[in-house]
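Task: complex structure prediction.
Instruction: return structure tokens for all chains below.
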Amino acid sequence: DIVMTQSPDSLAVSLGERATINCKSSQSVLYSSNNKNYLAWYQQKPGQPPKLLIYWASTRESGVPDRFSGSGSGTDFTLTISSLQAEDVAVYYCQQYYTTLFTFGPGTKVDVK
Amino acid sequence: QVQLQQSGPGLVKPSQTLSLTCTVAGGSINTGGSYWSWVRQHPGKGLEWIGYIYYSGSTSYNPSLKSRLTISVDTSKNQFSLRLSSVTAADTAVYYCARVLYYYDSSAYLFDFWGQGTLVTVSS
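Output:
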């Protein structure tokens, strides 16, 4: 299994400030034949299902605000919220789809300071 | 827009079988490139993929649950279902159904639509 880890477990950021979440996979999720990273990010607000934010490590899903961005390659990835809004309070998960034994990170909780 | 509507009991006794159904609205379960999946979330914890099914009946299961798991599809009702046998307290979780969109050109799978979730408690 590919094990996904995330850091920090939680963070509190002032409104309008940057939030950065890290994700690491136990093996590379970069597929050499197409140079794509099989890594997605999801946002889960309390009482709601997860929502797909980013795939291919850096491609925003339709309708996702551009303050959300993803970066990284291989085994190390980052989700950045450039200017935190109140509605961004949520838990964020990374997920690999490099193998069909899909695995998620443990989540990072983002709150307003 | 695809909507997934979950149904099933929220309380199951230990050693019995957990059964949930997900009805697909706003689209056909027969859509090529769409896989239909179950994911669970233990209280206060992260997400665990359970398995998926294609409309043809082809399945893929998480090995950690495979021996107790059956996912089935009923195309006439636009539904797919989860059955997990011999449940224990460790199976207490919120269970989500989700559509997994498959990209043929890159063999990628994305969880793009989710049901609202069903809290299933295993208790006598």
